[in-house]
Amino acid sequence: MPQRITAAEGLSAVDRMPPSDTKRWVASRKADVVRGIREGVVSRTEACTRYSLSDEELRLWERAIDAAGTPGLRVTRVQVYREVFESRH
Questions:
Q1: pTM (predicted TM-score)
Q2: Element (H, E) at 50
């Protein structure tokens, strides 16, 4: 059976970056920003400026992804993953 490719997977890293005026930060958009930084699409400084994020907030997103993947970025999952985050840092 051929593997299905979603629309997001077919886009380049640049195209997956959220718009600069993003107000609602769902887990997938947070993950796109972290992925963009890690793939060199945007620097940390550029991402913080573009999205009005603090470096601390961006680090929290990175830690959440490293500890639990994209689901760890869900606001409702913070309590569930808190123990995982704290044990790794």
A1: 0.72
A2: helix 44-51
